[in-house]
Amino acid sequence: MRGHDHFHGPVHQRRCREPQRFTADDRTLADYDALMAELNGHPVAYLHLRGPAPASPGGTPDFDAIARYRRRFDGPLIANHGFDRESGNAVIEAGTADAVSSATHFIANPDLVSRFALGRDLATGDPATYYTGAAGGYVDYPVSGWRDSAAQGVGEAAAARDQSSCS
Ligand SMILES: Cc1cc2nc3c(=O)[nH]c(=O)nc-3n(C[C@H](O)[C@H](O)[C@H](O)COP(=O)(O)O)c2cc1C
């Protein structure tokens, strides 16, 4: 129903009560534009925005959808959904986002930051292991063999960043 969502009731009431919580669902663009205007009136640390799914698995993320809210939200913006090293760098270099977050790639690549830093290939996760309630498929992917690399110094620095980002 327009103006409602499944979790929080009428949009106008939720805006007043919980300006930091909202999800896409069936909202109209006008609702979101209004929410952005309201967010700008609050001390929001950042906006984490999950865009539409890429048209195909591994496809290019929807930069335009992110850009719409870049124009409307005044604070730091983190873009999410389908980004990899190349598209993540591109959306930041374009000024469309300040940072990019990853979920799927982090599951299969516990050393994702190192792999990005070294330009290493990424492992692919197995969706059949998602949402099972078991640890398998979440905690058993190996780190890449950067210690054998000629770029060991770079790898150690990146690994230190991995460590600090997880603590
Ligand atoms: C296995 C799995 C579990 C997830 N669990 C959550 C969750 O608990 N809460 C949430 O807000 N998003 C969750 N997500 C969604 C991610 O945070 C992210 O928005 C989505 O996967 C798109 O980013 P990506 O393309 O980098 O994976 C999950 C995604 C995956 C793949």
Automatic annotation (TrEMBL):
InterPro entries, alphabetized: Aldolase_TIM, Oye-like
Single GO MF annotation: FMN binding
Protein name: NADH:flavin oxidoreductase/NADH oxidase N-terminal domain-containing protein
Source organism: Peterkaempfera bronchialis
